[in-house]
Amino acid sequence: EWLQEELREWYWIPWPDMQGLDVNALLPLLRWTADQVHHGKRLEVACFGGHGRTGTFAASLMMAFGWKAKDAIKEVRNKYCNSAIESAAQEKLLEEELPKWLNKKKS
């Protein structure tokens, strides 16, 4: 019962374990999450192991708020889990693919 009272909204995205994610699939999730944060909502981010996809999403959200990829990755690993962002595909998403879109947004 407490979960039903606490969990008002949720957003699920099919994201294969140890993989990056197509930026076009990630962007709506980032927009939704940023809106929730802007409105002071509590959020929980989770994946099966709590490291790869969770850490990658946390870093991508930080990047959406202006962090550079390397700084976001370092912060997530230092403050959350040193095993976060656990695959080359996830690092590529953060270091190469997402910045291309975020730089377009600023132009």
Question: Can you describe what's shown?
Answer:
It contains 5 helices and no strands. The chain has 107 residues and is mainly α. The longest helix has 19 residues, at 88-106. The mean pLDDT is 87.
Largest sheet: none
β-strand amount: under 5%
| Sheet/helix structural class | mainly alpha
Percent helix, as a range, is: 55-70%
Give the overall shape, derived from the CA principal axes.
globular
Order of helices and strands: HHHHH
Arithmetic mean of pLDDT: 87
Number of helices: 5
The total of beta strands comes to: 0
- Give the CA-CA distance, first to last residue: 47 Å
The value of Rg in angstroms is 14 Å
Reconstruct the topology from this structure.
Elements: H1 2-6, H2 23-38, H3 52-64, H4 69-79, H5 88-106
Helix pairs in contact: 3-4, 3-5
Quick description:
With 107 residues, the chain is mainly alpha-helical. 60% of the residues lie in helices and 0% in strands.
